[in-house]
Amino acid sequence: MNDNPAFGAGLQPFMGIPSFMRLPVTRELKNIDAAIMGVPYDSAVSYRSGIRFGPRKIREMSLLLWGHNSTLNVTPLKELNVVDYGDVSVIPTSIEHTMAAITKMAGEIIETGTKLITLGGDHSIALPLLRAHAKKHGPVSLVHIDAHIDTWESEFDAVPYSHGTPFRYALQEGLIRKDEYMQIGIRGPLSGANDYAEAKELGARTVTIHEVMEKGVKEILKEVHERMTGPVYVTVDIDSADPAYAPGTGTPEVGGLSSYQLLQLVRGLHGLDLIGFDLVEVSPPFDHADITAILASNIVFEYLSLLAIKEKK
Q1: pTM of the model
Q2: Measuring CA to CA, which residue among 259, 276, 283 is closest to residue 143?
Q3: pLDDT tens sequence for the chain (313 residues)
Q4: Residue pair 47/251 in contact by the 8 Å Cβ criterion
């Protein structure tokens, strides 16, 4: 925890400077276990923008986190040395240049042995993040919690990259291990009747919201643990939560996970070889009372807690 009084350490949440959980803001990674990196990019959204302001708002709402995870019985910042690494310098008019910048900065962090936690930004950022992690670890097992499959070929004519396409290209580039990709919470209208079948053909195991509700989170997690044998990357789109719990997002879909179910899914990843994480699609201009950003910061806290449990052992 950062003890510098200039950051407001020890003060109430409405005081001080909001780095994530008041962590030191630095790019010095010697003896650092995990780093928080923001990617304020939203030029790949297909509906509501404003997601570029997500990392800043998630950091602000993280000041509500008291520090001890009562469910997992761990205090992450006592077990881990964590810093806020700041943001990638994105270029809103160029997704290609932004992707290159994301991969470069992520790679620099990962190469030091530091675990990377990324605050998005729209879901297109997952592709360059997977490129960076696969370069370090080889193809990864992927847990993808979302309302949408994000394996479409294109959303805008022949343009390949958007927030609805990252996992198609990750699969085609060999960044994801065969049969070790699960997308959980999928729902809503589709662009075509064959979308789920195409995702399956590409290599995804699609778990719809109907299956989650029928089987329960515990059974879904059991399959996750059975399938994931490699280093596990986790990507969470906040629209996996029902709009009642997360209205501040780019493409809301009704009938989703509750906040509690989403927390259960992340907590249930305990025991896997967790090597990277991103939380995306928080759009503060559409958020009511900051409830989406509050949920997002808590999801990041749960993931930090999982890393801390492993370190504690």
Answers
A1: 0.94
A2: 276
A3: 556 666 666 677 877 789 999 999 999 999 999 999 999 999 878 878 899 999 999 999 999 999 999 999 999 999 999 999 999 999 999 999 999 999 999 999 999 999 999 999 999 999 999 999 999 999 999 999 999 997 866 566 777 776 678 899 999 999 999 899 999 999 988 877 788 998 999 999 999 999 999 999 999 999 999 999 999 999 999 999 999 999 999 999 999 999 999 999 999 999 999 999 999 999 999 999 999 999 999 999 999 999 999 766 6
A4: yes
